[in-house]
């Protein structure tokens, strides 16, 4: 069986550890590796990298991983490693990924790929010029709810799609009387924080892959909670946006409205939901569920403020069955990227697509700061659109 060495930088963080190391890399090895063409299989050999030796040693001991180091250069110099994966904080990503590209490693990167479009494009160009394969995490596309939504789109359920309305977020505790669920750097712009930079790259690949390319954005990014308490109990001033409200104009006339907030209490079935309305039907998709209402089964509500509502609106929607086994989306995409590296299988979510996500965040923040609608031009820097 083949073995593929993977340098994993940032596994001491929540997402890098749980979704990428435990739920993806280790789970792949537990199932016997990634199946390749011709029935071959490849196992993954993780090399853990980070700044804290104590944390790395603890993770390595917990999972029986022999290779870890605080020396990124040494990990990249090892001829037995082929892929570099980055799940660090955003402001540390560009320098590390650049070093990996220069070392000839194929690179797989969490989003956003950079803090600025210029840096995101520089990474995409560097990877292309070095001839290394590259990919960006696009995990939302592999959620069961969105896979069901994709099935509906491909089957023509909606007719002509008119609009998309998305709601994402939850209340992140301020850290004073209850510990926050997210690290404090998320709320400091100087550390690469901010919900627009964090979430707009997600909305970019979701919208362009399901509904059409983004042509313009109108956004308002705000800081609702102005002071929080960090992991050490120290109050700090919030310098990044914790909510962003946006309208995205898509190719073909589709209008998408998405609210993203870490200062909202949840009154919906799932932490993220998208309602898609079309001429022939509508759907509401979340992380796992997807419900539909066809035009043949659409009731006729009548506005009457003088009487209480008697129609059970949510009960009038039909649940879409799973009809398939849905694995962990991060793991599924890891398998795709490994096949891309080893078998040259297609992988559409490259650093150029990651740059479009950073571009959307940058233009959204510009729209908010200037109070204007901003068109989103194609990326024409030579890395592809």
From TrEMBL:
GFO/IDH/MocA-like oxidoreductase domain sequence ranges: 147-283
Entry keyword set:
Oxidoreductase
Statement: the UniProt record of this protein carries the keyword Lipid biosynthesis: no
Give TM segment ranges: none
What domain of life does the UniProt record list for this protein's source?
Bacteria
InterPro entries assigned to the protein according to its UniProt record, in alphabetical order? Gfo/Idh/MocA-like_OxRdtase_N (IPR000683), Gfo/Idh/MocA_oxidrdct_glycsds (IPR050463), GFO_IDH_MocA-like_dom (IPR055170), NAD(P)-bd_dom_sf (IPR036291)
Pfam families with a match to the protein in the record: GFO_IDH_MocA, GFO_IDH_MocA_C3
* Matching SUPFAM superfamilies: Glyceraldehyde-3-phosphate dehydrogenase-like, C-terminal domain, NAD(P)-binding Rossmann-fold domains
Q: What is this protein called?
A: Gfo/Idh/MocA family oxidoreductase
């Amino acid at each position: 069986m083949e073995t593929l060495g993977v340098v994993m930088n940032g596994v001491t963080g929540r997402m890098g550890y749980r979704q990428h190391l435990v739920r993806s890399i280790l789970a792949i090895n537990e199932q016997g590796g990634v199946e390749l063409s011709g029935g071959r299989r490849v196992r993954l050999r993780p090399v853990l990298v980070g700044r804290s030796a104590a944390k790395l040693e603890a993770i390595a001991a917990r999972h029986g991983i022999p290779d870890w180091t605080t020396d990124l250069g040494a990990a990249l110099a090892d001829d037995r490693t082929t892929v570099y994966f980055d799940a660090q904080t955003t402001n540390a990503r560009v320098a590390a990924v650049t070093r990996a590209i220069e070392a000839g490693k194929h690179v797989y990167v969490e989003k956003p790929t950079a803090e600025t479009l210029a840096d995101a494009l520089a990474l995409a160009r560097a990877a292309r010029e070095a001839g290394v394969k590259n990919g960006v995490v696009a995990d939302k596309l592999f959620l069961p709810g969105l896979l069901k939504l994709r099935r509906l789109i491909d089957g023509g359920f909606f007719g002509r799609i008119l609009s998309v309305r998305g709601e994402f977020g939850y209340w992140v505790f301020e850290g004073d009387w209850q510990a926050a669920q997210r690290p404090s750097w998320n709320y400091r712009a100087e550390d690469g924080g901010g919900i627009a930079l964090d979430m707009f790259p997600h909305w970019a690949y979701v919208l362009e892959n399901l509904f059409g390319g983004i042509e313009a954005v109108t956004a308002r990014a705000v800081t609702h909670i102005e002071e929080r308490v960090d992991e050490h109990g120290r109050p700090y001033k919030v310098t990044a946006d914790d909510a962003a409200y946006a309208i995205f104009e898509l190719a073909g006339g589709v209008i998408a409205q998405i609210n993203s907030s870490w200062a909202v209490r949840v009154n919906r079935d799932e932490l993220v939901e998208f309602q898609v309305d079309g001429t022939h039907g509508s759907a509401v998709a979340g992380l796992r569920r997807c419900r539909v209402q066809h035009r043949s089964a659409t009731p006729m509500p009548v506005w009457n403020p003088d009487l209480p509502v008697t129609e059970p609106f949510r009960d009038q929607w039909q649940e879409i069955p799973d009809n398939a086994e849905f694995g962990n989306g991060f793991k599924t995409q890891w398998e795709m990227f490994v096949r891309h590296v080893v078998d040259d299988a297609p992988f559409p979510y490259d650093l150029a697509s990651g740059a479009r996500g950073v571009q959307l965040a940058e233009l959204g923040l510009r729209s908010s700061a200037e109070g204007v609608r901003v068109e989103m031009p194609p990326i024409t820097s030579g890395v592809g659109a």
